[in-house]
């Protein structure tokens, strides 16, 4: 049974273990999701960090905590599995292109269960824009927003293919930034209008 056939009922589709490896190119020791499920637009996932994880030996001796960049990577991997469970077919391998508004609220320690909630801002075969939050129990540990673009595919085996993919990716990013700028401008305009109308 493939991951996308793993329907648990009530509209929930889930993946774990080897099913996740069918959906992500990552492999241990750099695979950081144990379980992911989607229900409609909602993406949820889990990762239990253990004392055997490679980074704890140096981060930090005597006070092991999960590096912040690993928490962001874990959220992005959860989101990557989620969009594929939702039916997005990637044109190649998604690579992180931008991380913004990352805020770390508490450290994550060995043995703790890291629970993730991810939502799509935009998802297509060549670009995925998401935001997410990670919790330990009910306590917020991290919140972040990130953008992934396709970095390589079979078409990129030739210089012409690489150039075409790069141009398409830059066009996608430009469109995404323009939409974000327009949204911020509209918000500022609305706020200014409300201020002027206040007696």
Please sum up the structure shown.
The protein is of the alpha+beta class and 199 residues long. It is built from three helices and eight strands.
Task: Provide structural commentary.
The structure is a single chain. This protein has 199 residues and is α+β, with helices and mostly antiparallel strands. Helices cover 32% and strands 34% of the residues. It has three helices and eight strands. It is globular, with a radius of gyration of 19 Å. The model has no long low-confidence stretch (mean pLDDT 85).
Comma- or semicolon-separated keywords:
199 residues; Thiol Ester Dehydrase, Chain A; eight-stranded antiparallel sheet; 8 strands; globular
Write the layout of secondary structure elements.
Blueprint: E1 7-9, E2 12-16, H1 18-23, E3 35-39, E4 42-48, H2 68-85, E5 93-104, E6 113-123, E7 127-136, E8 139-152, H3 159-197
Antiparallel strand pairs: 1-2, 2-3, 3-4, 4-6, 5-8, 6-7, 7-8
Tell me what portion of residues adopts beta-strand conformation.
25-35%
Strand order within the widest beta sheet:
1-2-3-4-6-7-8-5
Low-confidence stretches: none
**Global structural class:** alpha+beta
Which fold name corresponds to the CATH topology? Thiol Ester Dehydrase, Chain A
- Main sheet properties: 8 strands, antiparallel
Distance between the termini: 64 Å
What form results from the Cα inertia axes? globular
Q: Could you spell the SSE succession in H and E letters?
A: EEHEEHEEEEH
Please identify which CATH superfamily we are dealing with.
Answer: Hotdog Thioesterase
Count every helix, treating DSSP H or I runs of 4 or more residues as helices.
Answer: 3
Number of strands: 8
Radius of gyration: 19 Å
The first-level CATH class is given as Alpha Beta
Tell me the CATH architecture: Roll
Percent helix range: 25-40%
